[in-house]
Amino acid sequence: MRYVAAYLLAVLAGNQSPDSASLEKILNSVGVKVEQANLTKVIDELKGKSIEDLIKEGTSKLATVPSAPAGAPASAAPAASGAPSAKKEEPKKEEKKEESEDEDMGFGLFD
After folding, report:
1. What is the DSSP annotation of 8-77?
2. Residue 26, class by beta-carbon neighbours within 10 Å (0-12 exposed, 13-18 middle, 19+ buried)?
3. What would you report as the CA-atom Rg of the chain, rounded to the nearest whole angstrom?
């Protein structure tokens, strides 16, 4: 991802066909160790292609990806009502924690 980001930065800066030296300069400026094989692969895949067209194509592909709220899965099936529970819930033991005077360090927040 960092190589693609460096490529995009180079294109945004006006270099329509960035080479490995310009991408290395960008990556080294932010302390990224450059792996030549990955850098060459990104350059070869993007060479001669319009970044604007690639972004439009990618955006249209992302529009078809289904998304659901992060809270609960949309396709969760309810548990069968007739099946016995595999796990018996034990009653939780509530322990009362007694506050000591040391916990408030001798003063209150609003005193």
Report:
1. HHHHHTT-SS--HHHHHHHHHHTTPPP-HHHHHHHHHHHTT--HHHHHHHHHHHHHTS----SSS-TTPP
2. buried
3. 28
d(CA 53, CA 67): 24
Q: Which of 46, 60, 35, 36 is nearest to 9 (CA)?
A: 46
CA–CA gap between residue 99 and residue 88 (Å, rounded): 33
Tell me which amino acid residue 94 is: E
**32-72 pLDDT tens trace:** 899 999 999 999 998 888 888 988 988 888 888 887 766 65
What does the alpha-carbon distance between residue 9 and residue 15 come to, in Å, rounded to a whole number?
9
